[in-house]
Amino acid sequence: MKSLSTLLLSALAVLFVSCQKENLDELAQRENQITPPPGYTIPACVTATETALLGGQTTTVGTVLIWNDATNVYVSYMLSGNYRVRRTHLYVGACNAIPVNGAGNPRIGLYPYQTDHGTGGTDIYTYTIPRNSLPGGSICVSAHAEVVAFTNGSMTFNETGWAQGDQINDGGSWAMKVSYVQQDCSGGGGQTR
User: Fold this and answer.
1) Which of 9, 24, 52, 175 is geometrically suited to a Cys-Cys bond with 44, CB 3.0 to 4.6 A?
2) Which residues contact 67 (CB under 8 A, 6 or more apart)?
3) CB-based contact 181:126 (threshold 8 Å)
């Protein structure tokens, strides 16, 4: 009888620990007040980076969320209100390898990740980039968007958008990049890879 009680207690302990792990992930997201897009989770040991998505340099049209897990880096465009992205261009990698022209301004047509979201656009889109294709540690994310808004079926907003960060070319276009440090949970929390 004693071994049956021990077995039951062990099973309950395993169940409790696994439930607690799921609750830690949810708690970490609530504490950071960062909500990932539907279908995605941010590991508890990772601190996501969230920045404004600016349309026309001054209008906050949504956010760009960057996070990673053990195998991928995720970049999610999340629009608010009636704003939508019709096209996205994304660079993720070494900061000194962002495709630029002779004047130092980005060449978004050469960004490795591009998606056409149709005339009406979309309010959420997430890119998944394998970490084994990226340098370790700190990387740059340059997230460009063609942003629109419709009111009663008429287009009321049509602007270029960038994830708010540091200007790519001081004195050049207003194009921006965001620094992100990839994190590794294998050593007990948040170390860089």
Assistant:
1) 24
2) 36, 42, 43, 46, 48, 49, 73, 74
3) no
In angstroms, the CA 192 to CA 127 distance is 21
Residue 70 carries which DSSP code? S
Q: Considering only residues 15 and 48, tell me which one the structure prediction assigns the higher pLDDT.
A: 48
Give the number of domains in the chain: 2
Helix H or strand E encompassing 24: helix 2-32
Residue ranges making up the domain that contains 17: 1-33
- In which band, very low, low, confident or very high, does the pLDDT at 171 lie, cut at 50, 70 and 90? confident
Name the token pair of 23: 């609750």
Q: What are the tens digits of pLDDT across the range 108-122?
A: 999 999 999 999 999
**pLDDT band with cut points at 50, 70 and 90 for residue 17:** very low
